[in-house]
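User: quick one
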Amino acid sequence: MTQKLSIGLIGAGRIGKVHAQSIANQVADAEIVRVADALPDAAAAIGQQYNIPFSDNYKDVLQDDAVKAILICSSTDTHAQMMIEAAAAGKHIFCEKPIDHDLSRIDAALSAVERAGVKLMIGFNRRFDLNFQKVKETISSGAIGEPHLLKITSRDPAPPPISYIKVSGGLFMDMTIHDFDMARFLFGEVEEVFATGGVLVDPAIGEAGDIDTAIITLKFANGAMGTIDNSRQAVYGYDQRVEAFGSEGMVEIKNNLPNTHAFYGADGVVSEKPLYFFLERYMDAYGREMAAFVDCVVHDKPSPVTGQDGRAPVVIAMAALKSLQENRPVKLIEIS
Amino acid sequence: MTQKLSIGLIGAGRIGKVHAQSIANQVADAEIVRVADALPDAAAAIGQQYNIPFSDNYKDVLQDDAVKAILICSSTDTHAQMMIEAAAAGKHIFCEKPIDHDLSRIDAALSAVERAGVKLMIGFNRRFDLNFQKVKETISSGAIGEPHLLKITSRDPAPPPISYIKVSGGLFMDMTIHDFDMARFLFGEVEEVFATGGVLVDPAIGEAGDIDTAIITLKFANGAMGTIDNSRQAVYGYDQRVEAFGSEGMVEIKNNLPNTHAFYGADGVVSEKPLYFFLERYMDAYGREMAAFVDCVVHDKPSPVTGQDGRAPVVIAMAALKSLQENRPVKLIEIS
Amino acid sequence: MTQKLSIGLIGAGRIGKVHAQSIANQVADAEIVRVADALPDAAAAIGQQYNIPFSDNYKDVLQDDAVKAILICSSTDTHAQMMIEAAAAGKHIFCEKPIDHDLSRIDAALSAVERAGVKLMIGFNRRFDLNFQKVKETISSGAIGEPHLLKITSRDPAPPPISYIKVSGGLFMDMTIHDFDMARFLFGEVEEVFATGGVLVDPAIGEAGDIDTAIITLKFANGAMGTIDNSRQAVYGYDQRVEAFGSEGMVEIKNNLPNTHAFYGADGVVSEKPLYFFLERYMDAYGREMAAFVDCVVHDKPSPVTGQDGRAPVVIAMAALKSLQENRPVKLIEIS
Amino acid sequence: MTQKLSIGLIGAGRIGKVHAQSIANQVADAEIVRVADALPDAAAAIGQQYNIPFSDNYKDVLQDDAVKAILICSSTDTHAQMMIEAAAAGKHIFCEKPIDHDLSRIDAALSAVERAGVKLMIGFNRRFDLNFQKVKETISSGAIGEPHLLKITSRDPAPPPISYIKVSGGLFMDMTIHDFDMARFLFGEVEEVFATGGVLVDPAIGEAGDIDTAIITLKFANGAMGTIDNSRQAVYGYDQRVEAFGSEGMVEIKNNLPNTHAFYGADGVVSEKPLYFFLERYMDAYGREMAAFVDCVVHDKPSPVTGQDGRAPVVIAMAALKSLQENRPVKLIEIS
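Assistant: Done. Structure below.
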């Protein structure tokens, strides 16, 4: 039996725990061997659960020779620096999205990775969801013919705390960035963006300088067009749908439901709302994502989500923000 | 332009009105030219609406030389006698189901029709519904392979008045007879029946000597099996579904809905109940049925629902009743 | 019994025939009494079918004292002039959409109608479709709370002939105009439009100066946002859906299907495509539309689709075209 | 932290592996500490995977004082004897269905368990599936009112090997037994059964003395009726649905799908078939089942699936077989 890939975890918050659990339960050929988190209690919790060394200093992970790959699950502002140091230490890197809110810092990090020749994969988990994968396959198979229209619905069940909103980078960088990635994943490169948005859910979000509702129009390099609609609050749950329309047909995916029941009563037919929580909705996708990262490292395959795949949605988010501010379509070449 | 087929209507009640309306609106090459109903007001209402002669004596219709075909929409106990007289008068006949509750009377009527050489079509309207026709086509195309299992769900939204129950001939003869016809239409001849039933909806139905809920198992001549479930009261509306399963797949049809909306709220997703009323559900089918009758007469085609198609479900209903009473499977050859 | 409303039909083409048929079959208190069409054969066909006077001169209809109301179903460029003359003749007016492609001609026509005090109803048939009405009711009931996002999908099964494209007024004026009306019907007044579009279906459409695929973003006066997507060719049929999202929930409608069957085979589950043809999809709505017009005239009720309702979508279409040409959002106040 | 419940696994085949995996990944407060299987390789495989002692003798498990509870996952003919010995050894018992094919052996085993006062849970995994649980909850809540009709569809994707068929105990004891349990779970005690069946899938199944297709009618103690339909081969996958109808409404569950996509093309709309494999369909339910067993042992709760729940479906299966053989309804009191 091959030796397992030894992974160091940096950031023991919600998403760090998810990845640790995925590796323990679903990824046979990898194991978490060390963990660090700036909050000592968080690091300790995971350390004790998996019986591995833990500390409040991420450098401990990077300096551990046993660690061959790291997961960067800390706050966004630390990603670029950690990538640079990890690359220097020769560790393969899985980094949560977004890489950074600043293009020059992203570029510095990507350069460091390239120079070091380590693997880098960005955590766009939805690419590993079976529904979105089926859409991708259907498009790639040619079944819809030439792509014409892409419609992405992406709505959260409830807004995050205002404290989070303030450091989130804004709706486009925090939430729509997944949709920008999905747009590229399905229809290819984006050339121009027009964004409109407003504060319809909670005035406090506006006071924090952000919006909570938006519609974004995309123009793709291949001539296709797309639209994304976002809301910070869909009272019926986490609403994640896609529709891809082309010359030969359309493929759509619906939401996942907790069960398939329907009740037929005198007042109508009642069935389930979509799953409410993103972890519930994408738990399986997170597992597949980790498996894909380990597979790319262990078997020396190309990264399924490259550094460029991490950079491009940031550029689109910046263009969208500029479009919103200036109320005009913005070409991506205006950014960077 | 060809002359229109002149039709006489006997029975100006609910179903008679439906057929008159279908002919006026949807059947270009036919027209109602005379109407009779034992209730003079009913006859008058239709007579005045269409500006045609009316009376309270069905013989007036049969003796009218201008009448080439008749619709028998009067009460079941009059069907056989009217068929015999209409055949003698050389009129083509459309007769509502069931022909009669007595096999010897049915046979006498069918013999009279045969001797006279007139067309006879029995009013099993569901055969003309686009949903059931699609099931039939799918089975006939071989898509499901060899037929194995047939499941018919047939539930009324609310029971009829007890006064009607008393003269209805019982659940099997009044309501299930449509399902027995559908079973034959889709899977062919039935050889054996086992019926179980009870009074679960309204004790008054039991006091009237009938049941209101039933499950019937069918064995077909081709080795397939089927099940029918009936209720006199589905609070969510008129429930009419079929599922046909075979060696190569399954075809199912669902209920028709008044509209396609779904509301997603914090308490779930609410959509429409099935159409409540059978006339609403099958209005289109009634129109196609009349068109088929006129077509078979005008273009001298075989009847799409023959006298034998009218007799066979009566035999099944009698076997089902015997099965219920004796709590054992009953072969159809035990009847008649 | 009340006397029937006597209606004159101007324009005996496809839509004129539909309205004549609706009135004959579904509107008890009205009748077509005279017809005119510039093509004598078209006028004659309807005239003979309903046994009424016909001519190739619409003035014959306007000068007939028996005619109390008229249906303007002729080509768009004749609408305004006919409205003015009909108003002068004291006839109530039903006019197909769009009123005209020119705002000053529209305004002249609306002024003439107002001065004459006759009823005017514009033919936005989708407002009378049971699906869209259910969405309207759900929004009006407050069930979705404050309106936030509106998504209209509107795709034709196949493009019209290039000869038609050339005189159509363009995609926005010919096809999206229905969606602009639907947007107003559901979410109220529009303030700003951003349109993007392309020629993805057929280069000949581009050569004719039009586009065949578009996404339009709408900003409403109430702060809500909307998106419309159009294609001249959805190979799976006529795609007409709406989704209205608000603070308390979402309501959506799906397409109507020819039947409800699903086939489960080894290769997947196959069910029906949407109805292909707009007349099939909206036949019932056309009937309800005519009934509503007759009701408003006979019972002196307000018009359910006013002249202003006919003018506003034209303004939106003009703004959309300007937006497409200048690649920037256009406020409606820039128009007219 | 509480000490984990130490579990011994007897039977290291397919279902034994599933339970071991569930405990490792999903049940925090239990662990497999020893394994035995008559096939030494099977025992070794699991033993090495979890680094625990293994042998080919189940008595090794029963004699291990560290083992507090056992999972009986060996062949059916060994269940009763192992239960008796495990009870004597004071081990809590989880036993796969069916307990045995012989009522006297079942009764002996249940008596031994009762005398020993150990916990016993029978492995009817579907009771732990979220879909079936939702149906149960809906019925229990009173939402459907008085239960009237129960319809269970239960079809395998493909028949097992003939060698398995021969020792399976027959369709009713091997496959329908899950449906008999589900019927009791949802509607309560069964009083009478009528079964019809045939060999429609594969003649070799008939030659092995079994049937492959069946319809069973149930009469419940509460007056309700039910029907189960079974096939050994649904080419579209594992078909597991339930419909419960009552005086106030109906609740139904549909199949689980691998993803939610639908492709709209010129030939129709194609979506996913049900999950094909029962382990895939019920993997989550198996995990919940193990968690429920551990919970009942660790927290001294009543068993969620008692010995009587294991015995009753065997009685129904025997009655169904007798009904099939004698072609008559059979009361359960005729058995045992």
